[in-house]
Amino acid sequence: MVNHEIKIAFEEYSSFEELNAADQALCREAVKALGGSHSPYSNFSVGAALRLQSGKIIYGSNQENAAYPSGLCAERVALFNWGANYAHDPIEALAVTAYTAKFVINKPITPCGSCLQVLAEYERKQKQPIRTLLYCQDGSTWVTNGVESFLPFLFFEDRLVSVPV
Ligand SMILES: [Zn+2]
């Protein structure tokens, strides 16, 4: 038996002003993305913004539906838009933020496992890490350079070895 230990690393910025100018700008774009949220059931809006290498910003927001499983998270709305339309232009950074009138959000909202898995696969596809900013408008911001700190056990096909037929 072997014990393994995995360490994760992220930066925490307690004030918005501590972030560099590019990160601040992308967090503001994520706030802008909140406006596209369709969340009449949860009243919990999530906004995501991708900054591409060209400087283009791709927006995503959570989209709910009366048939509950038909909705999608903000992060994947943005990421699938990128994958379908802009994959030639690598993603440099992703910012995510949330808003609800029901609660005070005092810690960053973290992407769900499915969004992290999609983010991880696109990181591999574009062969460069995606700086990820989890921006809490009334609290701190968490930053990683790449998704593996948030999802150390990613699933990748390269773990599967073909069986000769
Ligand atoms: Zn998600």
From TrEMBL:
Residues 21-153 form the CMP/dCMP-type deaminase domain. NCBIfam families: PRK05578.1. GO terms for biological process: nucleobase-containing small molecule metabolic process; pyrimidine-containing compound metabolic process. The keyword Metal-binding applies. It comes from the Bacteria. Pfam families: dCMP_cyt_deam_1. Belongs to the cytidine and deoxycytidylate deaminase family. This is CMP/dCMP-type deaminase domain-containing protein. GO terms for cellular component: cytosol. One of its GO terms (molecular function) is zinc ion binding. Keywords: Hydrolase, Metal-binding, Zinc. The keyword Metal-binding applies. InterPro entries: APOBEC/CMP_deaminase_Zn-bd, CMP_dCMP_dom, Cyt/Deoxycyt_deaminase, Cytidine_deaminase-like.
